[in-house]
Amino acid sequence: MSFVPKRCTSDAASNEQNLNQLPPTYMYSVIFKDIVLEINDDDAKSIKALETYCKKQNIPDAEINELKSKYHQKSPVWWYTCEMFLYGMLNCGLRSLDMEAMSKLGFFIRSLHLQLKQLHQQQSANFKKSFTVYRGQGMTKEDFQNLLDSKGGLLSFNNFLSTSMEPKVAMEFVERTMKKNPDVV
């Protein structure tokens, strides 16, 4: 997550000096997104490269084999939400800007982005008025302070956001996260 202070987003902030003050992680994530969405790799070749990477990361063979054998039978959103290594590896790689992980998952990032874009186009006509979604997010005290300090500015997320229309779902996620790691707020 990148925090862009309000002073960098004002009308007067469009000059080059203020753009140079944007957080480097924000700039890297924008550049990466542009690149990964333009590259059109062969899925079979990309899955093979991901398999090699996953073995180095000690991902269970059963999960790797399931992805290899059934990847085209399911949608990218299905793979992202199923309980296996993809969700964690993808979000960890995007949050930490781990270039190796992101490059191995580039084909999947592109496919997931395109499916979400398509779903948005299909479903946006059904929603005539805005609605609220909820997200539970654990963060370090430092990140929380940065969030408070950038009030009125912009937030840039380096990952896909899972949300719910039910506040209870988001709260349950927060509770689980805080039990696992008491240092998060």
Overview of this protein structure:
The protein is globular and about 45 Å long. α3 packs antiparallel against α4. The protein has two domains: 83 residues, no CATH class; 88 residues, no CATH class. The model has no long low-confidence stretch (mean pLDDT 87). The chain has 185 residues and is mainly alpha-helical. It is built from ten helices and two strands. The protein has a two-stranded antiparallel sheet with strand order 1-2.
Provide a concise account of the structure shown.
It is built from ten helices and two strands, in the order βαααααααααβα. The protein is mainly alpha-helical and 185 residues long. The protein has two domains: 2-32 and 129-180, no CATH class; 39-126, no CATH class.
What is the ordering of alpha helices and beta strands?
EHHHHHHHHHEH
Number of helices: 10
Structural class: mainly alpha
Low-confidence stretches: none
Helix content: 55-70%
Largest sheet: 2 strands, antiparallel
Measure the end-to-end span.
15 Å
- Record field, number of beta strands: 2
**What is the beta-strand fraction?**
under 5%
**Based on CA inertia axes, which overall geometry fits?**
globular
